[in-house]
């Protein structure tokens, strides 16, 4: 059968189109979440952390520039980086990867090994510096579509840097950009400890903190709520899974039934100007 140049070009275009669709499908959230690059232990925590529902609530889309602040060992990196690798940009905002500061010196090798193990998935990861209060070099001002942070606000409160953190996130976002935050939710009847020594943050406090920086609360979700968490544990939130701080084996069994902490999930927007 004779194949004309026109027929060949049409066939090639169809092939490339199929390949493009396959590439997009291969990087859907469902495919990323079930990917072999994620450990069984990390996948097991999906039931508590609800990553697909959380990211969809925040409105993540391919092609976005997304900053994750203080990713620690990279639990969400395993999801965000592959999802944005081909179309978009994933930026971490944390301490210098060569730091000698705790706890980052402990997390950095784990994080770097993760990136090295699957270079095809993590080849597009960029690293910004977020060392409060001295060094904030996340990305260019007004360049990010979304800034996300998961269970970190209490850390900045412990350092007295929560207001500086909010201003930094506001600055790096484009007008109309999204700031998404998940945090251990405190008991609203208990006054907020300014240092959040328990690890819990009152939802009203978080809303006021973000709004003071200029953000507008767009939506809240109970995706990551846990009514079993009484929030009065002797080692604070770290008494619960996965840390089980200062618990014996029998106590660990009891606290395992509670699950991970009760968490608020808030979506803020930087107003369009």
**What name does CATH use for the topology?**
Rossmann fold
Order of helices and strands: HHHHHEHEHHEEEHHEHEHE
Tell me the helix content.
25-40%
Structural class: alpha/beta
CATH class: Alpha Beta
Query: Strand tally, please?
Result: 8
What best-fitting shape do the alpha-carbon axes yield?
Answer: globular
For the record, what is the CATH homologous superfamily label? Vaccinia Virus protein VP39
What's the architecture, going by CATH?
3-Layer(aba) Sandwich
Average predicted confidence as pLDDT:
90
How many domains, as an integer? 1
Question: Roughly how many Å apart are the termini?
Answer: 61 Å
- Strand order of the biggest β-sheet: 4-3-2-1-5-6-8-7
Q: What does the radius of gyration come to?
A: 21 Å
How much of the polypeptide forms β-strand, as a percent range?
15-25%
What profile does the largest beta sheet have? Answer: 8 strands, mixed
Uncertain runs are 1-26
Number of helices: 12
Q: What topology emerges from the helices and strands here?
A:
Blueprint: H1 5-26, H2 29-33, H3 40-44, H4 46-49, H5 51-58, E1 65-69, H6 77-84, E2 89-94, H7 104-117, H8 119-122, E3 126-131, E4 135-137, E5 144-150, H9 153-158, H10 162-172, E6 173-184, H11 203-212, E7 216-221, H12 249-256, E8 263-269
């Amino acid at each position: 059968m004779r194949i004309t140049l026109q027929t060949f070009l049409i066939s090639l275009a169809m092939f490339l189109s199929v390949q493009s669709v396959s590439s997009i499908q291969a990087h859907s959230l469902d495919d990323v979440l079930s990917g072999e690059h994620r450990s069984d232990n990390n996948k097991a925590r999906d039931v508590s952390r609800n990553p697909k529902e959380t990211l969809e609530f925040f409105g993540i889309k391919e092609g976005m520039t997304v900053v994750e602040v203080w990713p620690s060992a990279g639990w969400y990196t395993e999801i965000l980086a592959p999802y944005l690798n081909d179309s978009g940009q994933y930026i971490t905002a944390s301490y210098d990867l060569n730091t000698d500061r705790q706890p980052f010196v402990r997390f950095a090798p784990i994080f770097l090994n993760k990136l090295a193990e699957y270079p095809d998935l993590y080849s597009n990861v960029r690293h910004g510096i977020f060392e409060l209060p001295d060094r904030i070099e996340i990305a260019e001002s007004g360049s990010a579509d979304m800034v996300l942070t998961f269970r970190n606000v209490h850390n900045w409160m412990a350092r007295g840097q929560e207001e500086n953190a909010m201003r930094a996130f506001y600055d790096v976002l484009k007008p109309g950009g999204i700031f998404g935050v998940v945090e251990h939710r405190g008991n609203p009847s208990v006054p907020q400890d300014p240092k959040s020594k328990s690890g819990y943050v009152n939802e009203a406090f978080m809303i006021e903190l973000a709004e003071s920086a200029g953000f507008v609360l767009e939506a809240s979700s109970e995706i990551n709520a846990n009514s079993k968490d009484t929030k009065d544990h002797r080692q604070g939130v770290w008494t619960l899974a996965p840390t089980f701080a200062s618990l014996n084996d029998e106590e660990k069994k009891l606290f395992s039934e509670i699950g991970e902490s009760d968490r608020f999930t808030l979506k803020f927007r930087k107003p369009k100007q």
